[in-house]
Amino acid sequence: MTEDARQAGHPEQSGRAGHSGQAARPTITDVARRAGVSKSLVSFALNDRPGVSAETRDRILAAARELGWTPSLRARSLSVDRSYALGLVIGRSVDVIAADPFFHAFIAGVESEFSTAGQVLVLTRATPGREEAATYRGLAADKRVDGVFLTDLRADDDRIRLVSELGLAAVTLGRPDIPSPFPSVSVDDGRGIRAAVDHLIALGHRRIAHVAGPSNMLHGRRRAEAFAAAARAGGVEPMAAVETDFSAVDGARATRELLALGTERPTAIVYSNDMMALAGLAVAQRAGLRVPLDLSITGFDNTELGEHTFPSITSVATDAAEWGARSARLLLAAIAEEPVGDIELAEPRLVIRESTAAAPAAPVAAAPPRT
Questions:
Q1: pLDDT at residue 233, rounded to an integer
Q2: Residue 314 in this model has a pLDDT that exceeds 70
Q3: 3-70: which CATH number, 1.10.260.40, 3.40.440.10, 2.40.160.10, 1.20.1290.10?
Q4: Closest Cα partner for 341 from 190, 218, 186, 222?
Q5: 49-58 long-range CB contacts below 8 Å, 24 or more apart?
Q6: What is the mean pLDDT of residues 273-280?
Q7: Is the model more confident about 229 or about 62?
């Protein structure tokens, strides 16, 4: 008798009433029967392994949802040397994490894959340095996680060596600037910054500033470098990039610094994320400047809120949820010791809205900040 036939004959494993009279938990056999495929194909589809067509995978996932099937993590972890948990350690302040829509969308993308793959996400925050290193060691101890997502890559990032020494699988968000044994999922965010600068130069702006992220983060540095290169390529000498921690508070502070330059202030500001662009919009309007008539503003990430402000924010669009989903699938494949390689996401695009317009004939000095 086959395994399918044996399970079909036992109500406690098939989802029918068991000895208690209650419906038993549906099994992988029930999913296979509902989808009209074999158990092995169900297993391959639920773990996102190759060999399953997109149509069949969708049918299997639909059958699992209809039956309310969820994997038993306890049984799986006891049967193999796996925790079925993956870690995400974020080295930013709690306030920034809570406010930044990127992390929310990224985690949603990860969870969209984990919900059908029987994985859980262990999310923690740690200050970069000794606390962060101790956090990774703690996650690796006793197999609390099978792998980790490495975000906010830094110059000569020592986490890559540490995680490798700990024997954890990993995926990096972006390409490191040092040799790495781990696959990466990245997007050319420099192209997005270049598109924003090109757009502003085409509108006649010649005094363009950049409110940048931390220079010790690779994507913050790369965006700042892309800004300067794009400005010079367009025949414009870039104004200084003001470094921030990516928070709205710091974005507002950087905007006040730039507007304090009076008639020497920029006529356009390229922000490294939408949170800072929205904060900058508020600072400019409180200073009596009209956006975009007196000052043009661009953001990055194309968050939903930026579409509904007045004026709405011109922003670089990337797909953080897709980034999370692709990263999750890649990390699961690495853990399964399948062949993996770097993934380049779709190029970012500039979404032009109301916050950018032709450069003013002469910069209007901003009013002193309110106390």
A1: 97
A2: yes
A3: 1.10.260.40
A4: 186
A5: 49/333, 49/336, 49/338, 50/338
A6: 96
A7: 229
Check if 85-187+320-347 and 189-317 are the same fold: yes
Span 189-317 CATH architecture? 3-Layer(aba) Sandwich (3.40)
Element (H, E) at 271: strand 268-271
Integer Cα distance of 26 and 207 in angstroms: 64
Q: If you average pLDDT over residues 139-149, what whole number do you get?
A: 90
311, pLDDT greater than 60: yes
Helix then strand count (H, E) for the chain reads 16, 12
The class (CATH top level) of 85-187+320-347 is alpha beta
Work out the number of other CB atoms within 10 angstroms of the CB of residue 251: 30
Q: Which two tokens stand for residue 187?
A: 């997007």
Of residues 340 and 94, more confidently modeled:
340
CA 360 to chain centre: 36
pLDDT for the residue numbered 78: 41
Tokens of 14: 């098939």
Which residues make beta-bridge pairs with 85? 120
Q: What percentage of the chain has pLDDT greater than the value 90?
A: 64
Question: Radius of gyration over alpha carbons of the chain, in Å?
Answer: 25
Residue boundaries of the structural domains of the chain:
3-70, 85-187+320-347, 189-317
Sign of CA dihedral 184, 190, 191, 193: positive
